[in-house]
Amino acid sequence: ALPGEIGNVFVTGHSSYYWWSDGKYNTVLSLLDKLVVGDVVYVNYENKRYVYKVYETVVVSPKEVSVLDQGEDSILSLMTCTPVGTNYRRLVVRARQISPDPRYNTAGDSERSLPTN
């Protein structure tokens, strides 16, 4: 799903910097473990701000793919490796959309194609 749609907006990113990688965003989620239930997360998408409130943090194995499930709510899932600098487990922080009013969200387009590289 995309922000403003019913489903799971799923974002994943690195939690540590690898010296051999020149990427600019290697630490983008290195502080994800600081989010706690009740915290607010802001997502700016297509000139609109979406506000989500954290309701759960879980640690799962890399094989646990149920965290990708879409569901029937408008949620945001942020995922990174944990502990920082390893790839042993995955930290997933989940938040429910609180603004704009998610009752007005639309169903996601299941036929949306993914970009190819």
The main pleated sheet reads as: 6 strands, mixed
Contiguous helical run count: 0
Shape, per Cα inertia axes: globular
Q: What is the arithmetic mean of pLDDT?
A: 86
Structural class: mainly beta
Model description:
The protein is mostly beta strands. The chain is built from no helices and 6 strands. It has a 6-stranded mixed β-sheet, with no helix packed on it. The relative contact order is 0.29. The mean pLDDT is 86.
Offer a quick outline of the entry.
By secondary structure, the chain is mainly beta. Helix content is 0%, strand content 42%. The chain is globular and about 45 Å long.
List keywords for this structure.
globular; 117 residues; 0% helix
Topology (SSEs and partners):
Layout: E1 5-12, E2 40-45, E3 48-60, E4 74-82, E5 89-99, E6 106-107
Parallel strand pairs: 1-4, 1-6
Antiparallel strand pairs: 2-3, 3-5, 4-5
